[in-house]
Amino acid sequence: MRRERAPLAIGVLATVGAAFFIVPLVGLIVRTPWHDAVQSLTSADTLEALKLSLEASLSATALALVLGVPLAWIYARVEFPGRTVLRALTTLPMVLPPVVGGIALLLAFGRRGLLGSWLDSTFGITLPFTTAGVVMAETFVAMPFLVLTVEAGLRSMDRRYEEAARALGARRWTIFTRVTLPLIAPSLFAGAVLCWARALGEFGATITFAGNFPGVTQTMPLAVYLLLQTNPESSFVLSLVLLAVSLLVLIGLRNRWLGSA
Amino acid sequence: MLMRVPSLVAIALVVAACGSTGGTAAGSPASLNGSMNIFAAASLTDSFNALGKSFHQAHPSVALFINFAGTPTLVTQIEQGAQADVFASADTANMDKLNADGFTAGSSQVFAHNKLEIVVAPGNPKGINGLADLAKPGVIYITEGSSVPAGKYALQALATAGVKVTPKSLETDVKSVVAKIELGEADAGIVYTTDVRAAGSNVQGVQVPDVVNVIATYPVVTVKGSKNLDIAHAFITYVVSADGQSTLASFGFQHA
After folding, report:
1. Which ipTM was obtained for this model?
2. How many CB atoms lie within 10 A of CB B211?
3. CA of A231, closest CA in chain B: separation in Å?
4. How far is B72 from chain A (nearest CA, A)?
5. Between the CA of residue B51 and those of A48, A241, B48, B235, B251, what are the distances in Å?
6. Model confidence over A170-190: pLDDT tens digits?
7. For the residues A28-44, what does the mean pLDDT come to?
8. Which residue in A211, A218, A229 is closest to B76 by CB distance?
């Protein structure tokens, strides 16, 4: 490929554009008090938030896999009226302000919510202010990333392997588990990682729907936000941890999803 | 050109007339113009909106912007460089912090007091009659985080009353607590008397006896670096004036 020289204007604007993202990261790194970073990271509160964040985000990813892969399969393989609208509705949280998602979850699954009131009166289950509520909020916001990634994988896979399996007498469920899933493994992996990263960073829907209590619903992003008011230095350290995780996710997915540079 | 002079004079007179009548209402002359950013505690939402409205009527050429949030959030915003002219705090601790960190101009002035009240759903379905009832099994109690003044006061009141209760959530400000009671997600919360009054018939208040209650003190100050100190001082003067105090009283605040 021929090397191209950028016009000056494009070069300047692109530099400003790149700096816009890099300067905040540098700010975070420069202002982080490295001398007590270890202390900030190993304080009981931080470890509690970290543990809860890992548990909740992994649970949300598992839930998204169980519910999202079938949804992606339906979108990719079944023609039915309203499919486009349904897909738009189920991927809405990708662009919806998370706090709006949190309010919607309250109105649906809260104690007075459409389904929540029935859950409460029939089973005595209330979701707000519980870790289950955190998992729900995270799944709500993060699952669309998995669904779209897996759907793209299903659409681009070579379907002749499925046809061969069918011709050899395999049943539909067997084809799905033994042929389809292994073939789309890279998409499954990429979708799950993206979903997990989004769940790990979830803030708005979580604080709105699940509230904020250490060890129960206070995840890392909530802890970072609240620490900024009481102990800014610790919040810088935790921010950096979340930043590193996000960066690792992007680097890990570089070839699979974002195209290699 | 000559024709336009009388109309300009007329407009000037109308403006002056409006200004002077309004000026009398707020007790200061209407020579101010510009804009001002007020950073006020969440519990001041309704009262400061009303105060801002009447101040704007008195000074029509002053544009007022009020930013409401939990007091510690406001302190963080100001310390991170937000353009604030006036800071109204829900406690003295956060005011002292802002002052110690060098972000205040001049000394603060106490303009109101408030006290705690338990907020419950209308009709008080869980039969909450005092702080001790918050610990009853089956009651979902929520409060504010301890960095929020109301949350700190709530802890003090509960300690004085000898009540041990674990909240289900530590919300970021009083209005979030009231909202979750209104939505029915929680059964009881501790907020200010003024918040219960502001929510009207959507909630109900349960008094906290004076012996265990905490009196909240609200100080206000001008912020260092403000380019609108004249307006900021005029606003604070208005807040502590008889007019301002009666507006605050109408929202349930006690006189400074």
Report:
1. 0.79
2. 8
3. 10
4. 6
5. 43, 44, 5, 9, 11
6. 999 999 999 999 999 999 999
7. 84
8. A229
